[in-house]
Amino acid sequence: MRNAIYPGSFDPVTLGHIDIIRRSASMFDSLVIGVLNNNAKTPLFSVENRVNMLKAVVSDMDNVSVEVFDGLTVDFAKQHDISVIVRGLRAVTDYEYEVQIAQSNRQVSGETIDTIFLTTSLKYSYLSSSLVKEYAKYGVIAPDTVPEVVADALRKEFNFQ
Ligand code: ADP
Q1: SS3 43
Q2: Closest ligand 1 atom number to CA of residue 10
Q3: In the chain, is it the N or the C terminus that has fewer CB atoms within a 10 Å radius of its CB?
């Protein structure tokens, strides 16, 4: 069995994340989406909300599950028999940070856990949760950025139609 984890804040999940989820789910026997609960950033959505939105969007994917975790990704991975971490790479700006994390994860796991990177689909390469939140603050949801369940939650959060 090849099990993978796709860790992140998912505050909130975007179509860019979903693209990575679909593509990586087809490469592994199982994929856990790990929603980080100990983020230094103050999230807009509670961890329960983030998990519920993710569960709604992956409900048609049989080998994908959603779990909350805090602490180190490698500890969670070891406990769940996971040997691969999936991350998405957008622009070159993601690269340095991601490589640093991937290398330390490999090192602290005793070289048992590797990270694979999927390059983002071109149409999502400038999409981020932060950008979506910034626009929503001003009552705008750009087309082709978030699933409907997230658009609804943003409208509710920022009080617009
Ligand atoms: P984190 O706080 O860990 O960066 P995010 O939820 O922002 O969590 O991102 C989780 C993962 O998804 C990261 O690997 C990030 O590079 C990737 N990602 C974010 N937005 C996109 C996108 N538009 N296309 C592809 N991958 C993305």
Answers
A1: coil
A2: 6
A3: C
